[in-house]
Amino acid sequence: MQLAGLSNPRWALSQLTDGVFNGYISPVVLRESSNFVKLVREHNNEEVHDRFKQILKDYLIQQRSDVGGIALRIEQLVEDHTELRQGFKNLQMAVKATDFIKKIEGRLAVNDVKHYFEILKEFSTGQTSIVKMVEEMAVLFADHMDLFEEFCEFLPDSFNLSE
C-alpha cells in the first residue's frame, strides 16, 4: 500500500489547511485515523493488531486522559514496522497541523490568515514552487518567528532552508 505523507511535500503541507474547526474534526484527521487503523488491521501481524486494540481499549478506559502515553505506546508498537511507522507519522502530522492552524488564527490578523491559506493553495495546486512558498511564509511570519519555525517543521526533510 502506497502512503501519501511526509515524502510528499504537497500532501504534508496540505495538512496545514485542515484540522479541527468549531469543535468538528476535519476530514483529513478522520481520513488519516481511518487509514492508520486499516493499515494496522491489514498488516498481517496478529500480535501487532491485538496490541493495538489493547492500546485503544486502554485509551477509552482512561477516558482519553493520557494522549501522550498512548501515542508513545503506539510509537513503540510500530517502531520495527516501516509502513506502520509512516502511517502513524501521517496521523500525527494531521493532528499537529490542527494545533498550528489554531495558533495562527489566534495570533494573526484575519487578512494574514487568509493570505496564509492563499500561499498554501498556490503551492498545493502547483502554481508556485516550494522555495517561493517558504519565502512568502517567511515574510508573512516575520514578526512571529516561532510560527515560522513551527511551519518549517511541516516541510519535507529533503528541503534545506540554508540553501
From TrEMBL:
Q: What's any GO biological process attached to this entry?
A: negative regulation of transcription by RNA polymerase II
Q: Which PROSITE patterns match?
A: PAH
Which Pfam family name is an example for this entry? Answer: PAH
**Record's GO cellular component terms:** chromatin; histone deacetylase complex
Q: Which UniProt keywords apply?
A: Nucleus, Repressor
* Entry annotated with the keyword Repressor: yes
- Protein localization: Nucleus
One GO term in the molecular function aspect is: transcription corepressor activity
Signal peptide range in chain numbering: none
- InterPro entries xrefs: PAH, PAH_sf, Sin3-like
Q: What is this protein called?
A: Uncharacterized protein
